[in-house]
């Protein structure tokens, strides 16, 4: 009996010591303490696969996984010197072999960057415009909000088929007018790299602008409406209210939205694969980094380089936001 009582007292004493230790923590230290489970979870689901990918990138693995040879940085050397380009169809390369338009659009990395920058830029502008409209009080606002979400809810397979049919040079009704404007090739549209890149960017903007709009709208509705009343009394115009109140207050929200979309855009694959799969012979002449990783036998090096690029983009966006990103 005395032994059990001693154990209970030791447990109670340890619990009291832990509670006192936690009470003496600063707010910052306590916040980091609460984040420890999150860090552990991220380490399991994110950090370990990344480290495992880096480990695999140091080996040359046969297609049937029957042999594994340590090559060190050999995969990276081949990747950046063009040794891996033989695995890509149509003469596509990972890095550009020149600075001409054709050479740039023939590079999977350059096309990925062009896609990410262009699509995220226009999605942010269009999403901001939609959010500003939806933030106003007008009849049928709830229905308009629901309608805007529809493209975002469309599965990527359906999205790919829709844009394949719209821009197919034989049956697509958008190809002739856009070809007259010089935006698309009049024939074999999906086999032209510049046209295919344009189509994929338009498809992504159509689908994901709603995502940006919803995030920015959440930031808009968190603004204290009393600020606008004060601005009206002071004689501020609508533009001055947007410039001095709205935009500075939603800038952190825009930064977070751009961060999410940039990471997703750098990993684009589904829409390209879907459009290419609509015919017996892959018809979409648009290769991105994610496509490269599915075509190459030893793709761990490519995946790790892509993760490094995404990490640099994320760090850059966080540094741009400063303390508002924390």
Automatic annotation (TrEMBL):
Pfam families: BPD_transp_1. Keywords: Cell membrane, Membrane, Transmembrane, Transmembrane helix, Transport. It is found in: Cell membrane. It is a multi-pass membrane protein. GO terms for cellular component: plasma membrane. Its main location: membrane. The chain crosses the membrane at residues 30-51, 99-122, 143-167, 198-223, 244-263, 269-293, 300-320. One of its GO terms (biological process) is transmembrane transport. The keyword Aminoacyl-tRNA synthetase does not apply. Residues 109-319 form the ABC transmembrane type-1 domain. Belongs to the binding-protein-dependent transport system permease family. This is Sugar ABC transporter permease.
């Amino acid at each position: 009996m005395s032994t059990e009582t001693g154990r209970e007292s030791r447990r109670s004493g340890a619990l009291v010591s832990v509670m006192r230790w936690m009470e003496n923590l600063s707010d910052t230290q306590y916040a980091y303490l609460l984040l420890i489970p999150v860090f552990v979870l991220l380490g399991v689901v994110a950090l370990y696969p990344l480290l495992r990918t880096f480990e695999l990138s140091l080996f040359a693995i046969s297609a049937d996984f029957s042999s594994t040879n340590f090559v060190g940085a050999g995969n990276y050397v081949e990747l950046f010197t063009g040794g891996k380009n033989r695995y890509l169809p149509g003469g596509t390369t990972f890095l550009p072999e020149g600075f001409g338009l054709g050479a740039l659009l023939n590079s999977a990395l350059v096309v990925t960057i062009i896609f990410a920058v262009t699509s995220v830029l226009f999605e942010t502008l269009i999403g901001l415009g939609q959010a500003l409209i939806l933030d106003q009080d007008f009849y049928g606002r709830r229905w308009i909000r629901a309608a805007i979400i529809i493209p975002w809810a469309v599965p990527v397979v359906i999205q790919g088929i829709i844009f394949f049919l719209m821009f197919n040079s034989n049956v697509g009704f958008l190809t002739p007018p856009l070809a007259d404007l010089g935006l698309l090739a009049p024939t074999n549209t999906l086999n032209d790299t510049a046209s295919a890149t344009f189509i994929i960017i338009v498809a992504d903007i159509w689908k994901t602008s709603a995502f940006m709009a919803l995030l920015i709208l959440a930031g808009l509705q968190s603004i204290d409406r009393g600020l606008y009343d004060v601005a009206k009394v002071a004689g501020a115009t609508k533009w001055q209210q947007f410039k001095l109140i709205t935009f500075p207050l939603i800038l952190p929200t825009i930064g977070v939205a751009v961060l999410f979309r940039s990471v997703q855009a750098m990993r684009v694959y589904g829409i390209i694969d879907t459009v290419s799969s609509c015919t017996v012979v892959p018809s979409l002449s648009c290769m991105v980094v994610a496509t490269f990783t599915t075509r190459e036998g030893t793709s761990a090096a490519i995946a790790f380089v892509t993760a490094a690029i995404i990490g640099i983009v994320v760090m850059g966006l966080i540094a741009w936001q400063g303390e508002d990103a924390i």
